Amino acid sequence: MGQWIINWMDEEVGCGNYENNQKNGLWIELSTEFQIDSEVKYAGLYQNGKKVGRWNTYYNKKKMYTDLICYFSGGGFYDECFLKHGKWIDLIDNFSNDRQIAIIGEYNKGEKIGIWDWKELSHFSRFKTIGGGLYNGQGQKNGIWHGLTKNYSYLSRITYKGKYKNGKKIGNWNLFFLEKQIGGGEYNEKSLKNGNWIEVDNFWVFWYCLQYNNSESLCQGEYLDGKKIGKWIIKWEGEQLGGGQYDENNLKNGKWIELSQEFYQDSQVTYAGLYQNGKKVGRWNTYYYKKKIGGGSYDECFLKHGQWIDLIDNFYWYYFEQILNLISDNEVTVQGEYLNGRKIGNWVYVLDGKLMQDNLSY
Q: Which PANTHER family does the UniProt record give (predicted)?
């Protein structure tokens, strides 16, 4: 009972009152994704544990919709049944500093209806429309929609465009980076991907390559009823750099070449080895600019085992600094032993193929 205070990083960021073990009166709450780059709060009234009346959204202590006053009076309301009703300004999931997107439209008894717009506050524009579409009377997407990928951000501005029918994707869908079409494919009558598709394999790699090297990192292959089958290739700068085979169960099998999560022009790290029913087995090698610099073996339980040469932590940032001429042009790895997937004993730094005196103990 009584007042409860929400503290975060030694600062009071929210509060409210409980009566009879239920929230009542004015509350200031944090979003579920509240963190240092996503300080989103909600303020409004509770009645016997239910939200009522007007609720406002704040970001970094500022009203989100002060910039949207030309569109609506701002905010949103819960009706007498405690459901969203009328004009609302919602936030996209995982709203953050580089993902400042508001979703604007109308609710009818808790269901979205009519046209909804997705607006972005970026470094270059104040709430520019970047997507949206129409909801039918049942709260389902219908007709042509321009949406955002789940990884969309200021750095990875990848969108898709296609048709919905009663909330399900149908027909051809295209993938865009800014306004340039980069891929896409078709959904069948069951709203599952089918036939040939071109997709983004790694959103960070794609963005960096396109921005700084005028190149694209994409993967291409076949879907059958929503499952990847057969040969898939990974293209970078228009040429095949990796890929492998999917079996009938949508699992990787046989020989694969994969790009590191931080692959880009000046950190071209790839991995080559075998998959068995979606699990890495046997020998896997690590390559930098197609030169072998490390690797090791996976045991019958698909865990790293025995002697391995790994990349140093933050290998990508090492080479990013190298570009800025902050450190010399050397290859640094670490060498040691794994037991059942865990590092054990002493691990030694390797510089240009030579063991160094510095080491790590596990």
A: MORN VARIANT REPEAT PROTEIN, TPR REPEAT PROTEIN
| CB-based contact 235:217 (threshold 8 Å) | yes
Residues 6+ apart with CB under 8 A from 350: 309, 332, 333, 334, 335, 356
On whether the CB atoms of residues 201 and 183 are closer than 8 A, the answer is no
Rounded Cα distance between 203 and 205, Å, is 6
Q: Is 156 helix (H, G, I), strand (E, B) or coil?
A: coil
Burial of 359 (0-12, 13-18, 19+ CB in 10 A): middle
Place of tokens 């048709």: 163
* Longest alpha-carbon distance in the chain: 73
The first and second tokens of residue 78, run together, are 């819960």
Closest CA to 109 of 138, 71, 72, 73: 138
Chain-centre distance for alpha carbon 229 = 24
CA distance 362 to 344: 5
CA–CA distance, 143 with 136 (Å, rounded to integer): 9
Q: What does the domain layout of the chain look like in residue ranges?
A: 257-362
H-assigned helices in the chain: 203-213, 315-323
How is residue 197 written in tokens?
């598709």
For 208, phi and psi rounded to 5 degrees?
A: -60, -45
Per the listing, tokens 């600062």 go with 11
Instruction: Return the structure tokens found at 311.
Output: 């990349």
For position 67, what pLDDT does the model report?
Answer: 46
Lookup result for tokens 């291409």? 220
Question: 360: how many CB neighbours lie within 10 A of its CB?
Answer: 12
Residue with tokens 């998959």: 275
Which residues in the chain land under pLDDT 50? 65-74, 316-328
CATH of region 257-362, choose from 2.10.70, 3.40.50, 2.20.110, 1.10.3470: 2.20.110
The rounded Cα 49 to chain-centroid distance in angstroms is 33
What is the C-alpha to C-alpha distance for residues 82 and 107, in angstroms, rounded to an integer? 12
What is the per-residue pLDDT for 323? 37
